[in-house]
């Protein structure tokens, strides 16, 4: 599975704890991240992560592009709901695309725990069928 890992600054410690705890599950998958999050994960865990730009410099949009091509299977995006982000439109767009493509999304560690267990149990095997497909347009 292709997995995206993203954390706002005040949630990066959560992301490090999370990826450390579930390293054995995550290492079986292809990992992508925004720039700073990815570097911190690699430094802390040794996991191999494909890094995009930092979030405020377009990283969220790069990950959004993979979602829009139905190539991303799960997103862990630990958001900071208490701090205004200069790139809030990018954050909103990424979350919206997860809904457009029915991509499982965890915006906090609590949901992350559930999703990563689903990943371990191969609950996402349906993604192997839809990955890369165009979305079904809704008739108007
Ligand atoms: O801002 C982010 C997500 O919106 C995260 O970006 P970084 O991982 O580069 O800090």
From TrEMBL:
Q: Is Mitochondrion among the key words of this record?
A: no
> Which positions are catalytic residues?
60
Which EC class is the enzyme in? lyase
Single annotated GO MF:
methylglyoxal synthase activity
Domain MGS-like residue range list: 1-140
Enzyme Commission code(s) on record: 4.2.3.3
**What positions does the entry give for substrate binding?**
8, 12, 34-37, 54-55, 87
| Pfam families linked | MGS (PF02142)
Q: Which residues form a coiled coil?
A: none
The reactions it catalyses are: dihydroxyacetone phosphate = methylglyoxal + phosphate
Q: What is the similarity comment for this entry?
A: Belongs to the methylglyoxal synthase family.
Q: What does this protein do?
A: Catalyzes the formation of methylglyoxal from dihydroxyacetone phosphate.
Q: What is this protein called?
A: Methylglyoxal synthase
Q: Which organism is it from?
A: Niallia endozanthoxylica
Upper lineage: Bacteria, Bacillati, Bacillota, Bacilli, Bacillales
The gene is mgsA
């Amino acid at each position: 599975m292709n997995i995206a890992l993203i954390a706002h600054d005040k949630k990066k410690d959560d992301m490090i704890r999370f990826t450390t705890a579930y390293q054995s599950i995550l290492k079986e998958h292809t990992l992508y991240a925004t720039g700073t999050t990815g570097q911190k994960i690699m430094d802390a865990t040794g996991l191999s992560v494909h890094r995009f730009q930092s979030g405020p410099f377009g990283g969220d949009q790069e990950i959004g592009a993979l979602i829009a091509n139905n190539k991303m299977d799960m997103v862990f995006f630990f958001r900071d709901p208490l701090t205004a982000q200069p790139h809030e439109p990018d954050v909103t767009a990424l979350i919206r695309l997860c809904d457009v493509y029915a991509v499982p999304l965890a915006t906090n560690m609590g949901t992350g725990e559930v999703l990563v267990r689903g990943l371990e149990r191969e609950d996402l095997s349906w993604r192997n069928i839809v990955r890369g497909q165009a979305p079904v347009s809704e008739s108007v």
